[in-house]
Amino acid sequence: MSISQLEADGIPLLFLPDDGDDCTGGIAFRVGWADETLAVRGLTHLVGHLALSLLNPTELHHHLETHAAHTVFRTRGTAEHVVQVLSDVCGLLRDLPHDRVEGEKAVLAAESRTMYGGGGSLQRVRYGAAGYGLSSYPELGVADLTPDLASLWVQEAFTRGNAVAWFSGPELPATLDLALGEGRRQPPPETTSLTDTPAWYLAPDSAAVLVTGIVPRSRGARVFAEVLDRLATRRLRDDLGYCYQAGAQYAVRDATSATVVLRAEARPERAAAVAGEILDLLAELRWGPPDADLVGAAAADVRTETADLLRVPAGLADVARDLLLGVPGAVTGALELVDEPVSPDDVRVLAETYWGQALAQLPAGDLEWAGWHPAPVQSAHAATGRVIQPHDPSLSDVLVVGAEAVTRRTRSSVTTVVFRDVACMLAFTDGGRWLIGTDGIEVHVEPTLHAVDAGLVADIDAAVDRARVVRRPARHPGDLPGPRPAATGRAEASPAPQDRLGGLLRRLRGG
Amino acid sequence: MPEPEPSSAAARRRTVCAIGHDHLAFEPVEPSTTSALYDPADIFPDLKRARARAQEGDVTGALQTVAMQRRRSETDHAIALGVLARVPGLDDALETHLRRAPRDLEARLLRLHRAVLDPDAYPAVDQALVQMCAEDPHDATPWYLRILTADERRVPAQEAFRRYERLSRVELHHFAAQRALLHCLRPAAGGSWHDGITLATRVAADAADGSPEHSLLAAAHLGRWHDLTDGRSTDDLCGPELVAQVEAAADRFLAAPCTSAYAGVVAHTELAVYFGLAGRPGRAVAHFRALGAALARGPWEAAVRHHERLTTLRDEALASGGPA
Description:
The structure holds two protein chains of two kinds.
Chain A: E1 4-8, E2 11-17, E3 23-29, H1 43-51, H2 60-63, E4 64-66, E5 71-77, H3 79-94, H4 101-111, H5 122-127, H6 147-157, E6 163-169, E7 199-202, E8 208-216, H7 219-239, E9 243-252, E10 257-266, H8 271-287, H9 292-307, H10 316-325, H11 344-357, E11 359-362, E12 373-374, E13 386-388, E14 397-401, E15 405-410, E16 414-418, E17 422-428, E18 433-437, E19 442-445, H12 454-463, E20 469-472, H13 500-509
Parallel strand pairs in A: 2-6, 7-11, 7-12, 17-20
Antiparallel strand pairs in A: 1-2, 3-5, 3-6, 4-5, 8-10, 8-11, 9-10, 13-14, 14-15, 15-16, 17-18, 18-19
Chain B: H1 9-17, H2 40-43, H3 45-55, H4 59-68, H5 74-85, H6 91-100, H7 105-116, H8 124-135, H9 140-153, H10 157-168, H11 175-184, H12 193-206, H13 216-229, H14 240-254, H15 261-277, H16 281-291, H17 297-302, H18 307-319
């Protein structure tokens, strides 16, 4: 049995005959958090919650997956159940339950337990505070999301032209209702990347050495990741005992590229040795004697894992994703699913590619000895303008606020955010302003640290696009930085009136 | 407690001769004066010939001598390579050689060793060494050179130690690498003298009688002493327990012919200097006598504030008849 590509309500529908106990079904959209801006980070997730709000809340994440570039609703059970869930999802996307927005925002806030997202800082350093880099950030925008904004997002992305559905069961139900609003297929998320690679940066709070690299999607790349996984485990954990956990994973990024993440959990005092061993491990793949046995075993495992993906219901979501991403031949088997031989030389070439694009996060040490570039964590330029001194005169820590940008300058660092490149500004009622540039660099303006007056805060507020501002309540005095007690709300500036719809659109799309 | 001094020249001669004339298993240059020879190529005739060939531009001939050292030990190979790495004006001939024979392992290693001595060559030399280690992880010499670069580049001590661990899987008794690692483990490089002394103890435990590795304990304590006192008061070196440990290590070193002629110069110098500073003049004289005109510059110069005392002991050793 193989996948048939049909159509229902104008939506491509994948059907896989299956005589298993349960039917499965789902619908995927070409939209994810990488399509958002930081100021509305969490919007796709919120829409997903709203579309499933007829379900028992405890079951919600059995049915919803929000990825970087696509969002999946899926379910399993009887044919009637599957039809009902998909119909409910499409029905709620046609008519979003605005009355549930505040409730679901509260649920999302409860889900977000950490300040930063699950992606660590690697994606931010590679991509900045935009696109795929947003996985490094929490869902900052949720608190300010409105029903109108959610509806606008649905009209933009949760549409007939931007969806692929699937069903697997004995036969295709006649009652499947997938009606959605008109719309077009969304282009892939914009991607920028580091120019000087391989690169490294320090993350002293991390307990892991992480290395990511971008490789072209292929069976060979998946085998390369499997080889890397086996080598990392064997060498770093089993042989040397440097890590209690080490391995590599292959993750599809878009139609043509995948990210291979190598992760080695290690004590900080071992970090430099772990990083050194990883570099040697990669070097052996590039220049060492070919290990045909290792590559052969890895290729066999990948073949086993992928052999049935076009014949089992579990593979349908990936096929739908690839259709949405525009992968040619997605339904008949493309990229990783093409069963082609992978040689040690193929792995060597991929190791070369991986090395050339690699970015490493280190808890300690550096990789300059190996010729890796320090990733930019500071700014090349500083603002010119009004210099704001710290309350503590013994500190060498000044703010410079100009017409175009704000800079924080200490003895060891210069960080600048250009106002027109603000990805998001958190505006606290206590007067604090956290500006995050699209390059991922942050400047925190804190009245408790510097002699910041209400006029200065108003100047900053006026300089930053309102669509990039996320308002936050005053922080608890104990949470404020610096030696001074919390400033009062008088530093809060009144936002300039802006066109409401224009502001909403800019929140969604930038510009 | 200081050892009893020999009461007569004859007794002194007996103590000196107790080491055995052939401990180094080579025939060092007979000292014509009390001036020291530091360069291995001035001490060992085969290295002198290799250096001369290199100076004449005969890279192939010089490298043949270096390659032959692998049959003796990886340490001797490393030391021989180091001699050629320090020959001035060899680069053009070496590059010509490498253009003709780009895969010549010894020539590639020589080029990298010369680069290791040139701070301007980093990090390219590191990258090239990573490649060589990857191409043949079973060749000890690139790993040894990476320990040298770890010291030069001040990479964290843990990374230097990892490189040594990789090397030790190939060659467990690489004395030159152990000494280089000892330097990487000093506190100034992020390590600790405890780590260094632990290393010295560990490698000595696995070493055969006659191995220069038995001198590493003295080297570690001399390093610690120099670091903590700037080479002034020698009290730290005179503790009875420590002296007994170093004496036991020295006895293991002397219990069989030295396993590495070139490294033996370093080992005897470490022990001669240590015992000279630790109030064991008889033992110091014995090691100086085994050295003849030879000395290792590092341990000798670390004790510069005590050269008067050490020179007296060395003169006494040389006056007692030389090594052969």
